[in-house]
TrEMBL record:
Keywords: Cell membrane, Membrane, Transmembrane, Transmembrane helix. Pfam families: MFS_1. SUPFAM superfamilies: MFS general substrate transporter (SSF103473). It is found in: Cell membrane. It comes from Falsiroseomonas frigidaquae. Residues 10-385 form the Major facilitator superfamily (MFS) profile domain. This is MFS transporter. It is a multi-pass membrane protein.
Amino acid sequence: MTPWAPHWAPVAAMLAGGVLGAAQIGKVPAAMTTIGAEFGLGLAGAALLVSLFALMAAAGGLGIGLAVARIGPRRALLAGLWLGAAAAVAAALAPSTPLLLLARVAEGAGFLLLVVAAPGLISASVAPRDRGLAMGLWGTYMPAGIALGLLSAPLVEAQGWRFAWMVLALALGLAALVCWRLVPRTTVAQAPPAAPIAAQLRALAAARRPLRIASAFATYNIMYFGIAAFLPARLEALGSGTGGAGAAAALAALANAGGNLAAGLLMRRGVAAERLVVAGALGMAVMAAGVYLVPHPGAVVVLAVLACGIGGLLPAACFALLPRAVPDPALVAPAVGLVIQGNNLAQLLAPPLIGALAAQSWALASLPLLVAGLLATLAGRSLSR
């Protein structure tokens, strides 16, 4: 099968849905100051609009995965897209802070349904030799989507945040329509599994490999968000301007997307996904620690870009491993939910810890990244065995 085969149309549709879903995260920083001023939230209150997404996934990732296994991945995918689009419209029209926060919670639920359902559908849509490439493409949804959301900033400035958010909401609705037309009903079995939830949880724990993949992914995210959240502040502390620091962070995000694509191509050429997990974790740990140890801003940028690029090998490899890490296809969605939940727990807990250490000394901020890299490497080695 070539990359232009008709089987890739559903993959492209789901990737577009994932990117536009993640854009609903990136749209908030682009409008945070404006929204904070309009509703009297202040910067901290407006930042809650971002963290609600992570909080939803940290609390309910596994539960959403079990729900997806019950209702079927295609239904869950479409439900997530439609719910996300409707909630995004509601957020753009929200007249008060409580309604805006409620709409963001609904957006987070829709996004969770989407990202838990999509990997299994994508894996089932392509030939076995193309699954690594497909998972590499899917792994770009988060950095590409956040970048797209950030690019709404000029529209916010020209037309206001409500107009910009409505444009992104309608784009997500269009992606839902395209997925409804292109994602086939027969990609995977749609019948709910016969096993009760408790039995599914026991089977998931007994399989062990999903837990190891979740561990690798969570510790990878400690490193990734340790760079993404603090790189601008690190560069500004070294004398860089705000604009240059922001551009460097965007470049690191693009490098991460490139790493995902590189992993997909390497897996398509026969490189084992387990080896990519180890290489990505080890390389990222060394480079990420250097971001907070090297005192020259130019070197910091190079190290951050390399860390995010090399680390990008890991998420694509993890997504590729999941479908064959479970004994029953019905467990794919719960396994993805488990990975998403671990990812967002790391996203919630790691930045405050790293920030507290950085306040004492930037060199101390390298310690959690080194420990996370070691744990991710060990998880990758256990997958190889």
